[in-house]
Amino acid sequence: MSSPDATAPRQPSRRALLATGAVTLGAGAVVGPLAGPANGAFDGGPLDRGENWPAGPGRRNRPQSADPQLREIMSEIDKDRIERYVRKLASFGTRHTFSSQTDPDRGVGAACDYIFDHMQRSASRSNGRMTVEKQSFTPQPAPGIPAGVPITNVIATLRGSKYPERFYVISGHYDSRNSDVTDPVGDAPGADDDASGVAISMELARVFATRRPEATLVCAAVSGEEQGLFGSTFMAQRYKDEGTDVQGMFTNDIVGSSTADDGTRDPRSIRLFAEGVPSDETPDEARTRRSVGGENDSPARQLARFATEVADRPTTAMRVRVIYRRDRYLRGGDHIPYLERGFPAARFTEPNEDYAHQHQDVRVENGKQFGDLPRFCDFAFIRRVAKVNAATMWSLSQGPGPRRTCASTPVSSATTPCCAGMRTSSGTSRVTRSCGGRRSRTTGPT
Ligand SMILES: [Zn+2]
Asked: Does some domain include residue 27?
């Protein structure tokens, strides 16, 4: 028989921790660890019909209907514009990170200028609330990246009208690759991977620009993803260094097609990958998690659950399928640098990927066309994914943010002031809030 570890931090009761872990987000939405499974987890089964659902505590996620302003936003998202963005990005031939920075027609530099110009035009309609930045840096030489290669992120930031310090970020990567990840010359149209995700950032920047979200919304296009998440790592680290309160981040990566490699289509669902055990978990936090069985209560999962509540059917005509993994097997994406820095983040990806149309040289083999070409994109599908993003981002921005109350017993010390050492319910690591709503920042778990 084991005895309690006298050196372990004092733990709150399970009920107190679960109460603290519940998130209040959006227009009255309450999402908590007991709010139910990810939508679709029991699709078609008895639980999907509400049978046999245990009585409290907590309640199931229910999709919310969009308010008039959000309905207007979603109606403005334009399939034809999205198609134009994707085709234009593919027309640069390659957007490989090592391709030309100066050729006006071909290469990553031309693509960067195109995205920047579009974002600036959107910002010009924002009455000064949206700013656009080319965030350039030259990484140290590393495996996969030679010396002296500049990488540029394009970032459109729409300042919040009421809570400008709260940030929500969507991102896609505009660099591309073919079968050889080091080839800067050969065609790499990258229509699905990831002009589709960039198109969503471009279109939402356009649609959001004339609005006044309460919190700050960021629509980004980053580079260097295929070489090792260089652009998103720099961007996330910059936010961390500047103390930016990023309360949610989504990467849209490979969101361009609803068709599987066997030809079947699933045009009404999108996967949302959300990790369980936080990537930046400390040993103290791991002990607490194990003691309460909190593997399913991570900030990323809570963020994903919120997305199912505000962006699932009927609001967007899409199902948001939360996948309980950080990413697909042996794959990664631009949400990971955010997770590693304590920011809640998740990844949208199409329901079925066809590997003939990503990371492939453009070629015909035995009569089959390979390559990531615009013709294999479903632009109506990308529009619906953009709506999912819009509903999620807008609802986050108009909501109250993480609750500012706290458990009566701090995680780590009975003498620590209330709230200190607790994660915010959004999981913005080590940013703590006092009971009076004042915020303080600590350097680590107390
Ligand atoms: Zn990608």
From this structure: no
